[in-house]
């Protein structure tokens, strides 16, 4: 059986990833494809517990190396339990965040540097890389405002607190933003950069165009 397709979506919180993943899944389903949707951190029972620890604002302070190690612990479980089995069965896996996020947030934002992140990636993930990464980068200000508003609504509605990263200051997010741009330049064959304050429909069109190139029998519409 041919190996499946591994697609990741990246970007700052508030970049629109969740909306675009739902739209991409619907677009694939209309064409008879049933993608597997997952996220990091999270996506497994173990990963969801790690996610709660990493994102809850009550978890501060976490040492940067602890934070990065927890991200990769979550990733190792997701690869073993979800990503590799589904790819081996020929499925399309669409993942909200992967190692690029760790490189951007811990390597850039926490200033641990890319090499430490990439060393752990080689150790934990082996040769596994996304076939396609869709990097959504609207303006920094727009992303942060949307992320904070969304998390406040979620906390009010569900009591679930995932605000730890949103408590960081602007310089942290500027470093994340710059590291994402660095990744896009370095890995331009894999990463499709979708930049600027585009409409939801405009972003979706660019995503469909990029994904269609990896599905030769599927035409964008």
What can you tell me about this protein's structure?
- There is one protein chain.
- It contains 8 helices and 5 strands, in the order βαβααβααβααβα.
- It is an alpha/beta fold.
- A 5-stranded parallel beta sheet has the order 2-3-1-4-5, sandwiched between helices.
- Helix 3 runs parallel beside helix 5, helix 4 runs antiparallel to helix 5 and helix 4 packs across helix 7.
- The protein is globular.
- The model has no long low-confidence stretch (mean pLDDT 90).
In short:
This protein is α/β, with parallel strands linked by helices. Helix content is about 55%, strand content about 10%.
Mean pLDDT: 90
* CATH homologous superfamily (4th level) name: P-loop containing nucleotide triphosphate hydrolases
Report the end-to-end length measured between terminal Cα atoms: 28 Å
Low-confidence stretches: none
Element order, helices and strands? EHEHHEHHEHHEH
CATH topology: Rossmann fold
What is the helix fraction of residues, given as a range?
A: 55-70%
The helix count comes to 8
In the sheet with the most strands, the strands line up as: 2-3-1-4-5
Tell me the major beta sheet: 5 strands, parallel
Number of strands: 5
CATH-scheme architecture: 3-Layer(aba) Sandwich
- Provide the number of structural domains: 1
Helix/strand-derived category reads alpha/beta
- CA-atom Rg in angstroms: 17 Å
The dominant shape is globular
* Strand-residue proportion: 5-15%
- CATH top level is Alpha Beta
């Amino acid at each position: 059986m041919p190996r499946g397709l591994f697609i990741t979506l990246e970007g700052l919180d508030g970049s629109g990833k969740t909306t675009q993943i739902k739209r991409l899944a619907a677009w694939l389903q209309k064409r008879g494809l049933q993608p597997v949707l997952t996220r990091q951190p999270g996506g497994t029972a173990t990963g969801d517990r790690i996610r709660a620890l990493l994102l809850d604002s009550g978890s501060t302070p976490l040492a940067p190396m602890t934070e990065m190690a927890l991200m990769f612990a979550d990733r190792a479980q997701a690869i073993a339990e979800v990503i590799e089995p589904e790819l081996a069965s020929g499925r399309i896996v669409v993942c909200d965040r992967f190692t690029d996020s760790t490189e951007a947030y811990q390597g850039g934002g926490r200033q641990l540097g890319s090499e430490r992140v990439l060393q752990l990636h080689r150790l934990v993930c082996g040769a596994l890389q996304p076939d396609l990464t869709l990097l959504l980068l609207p303006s920094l200000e727009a992303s942060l405002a949307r992320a904070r508003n969304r998390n406040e609504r979620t906390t009010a509605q569900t009591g679930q607190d995932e605000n730890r990263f949103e408590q960081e200051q602007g310089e942290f997010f500027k470093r994340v933003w710059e590291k994402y741009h660095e990744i896009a330049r370095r890995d331009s064959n894999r990463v499709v950069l979708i930049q600027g304050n585009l409409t939801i429909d405009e972003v979706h069109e660019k995503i469909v165009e990029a994904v269609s190139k990896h599905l030769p029998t599927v035409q964008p519409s």
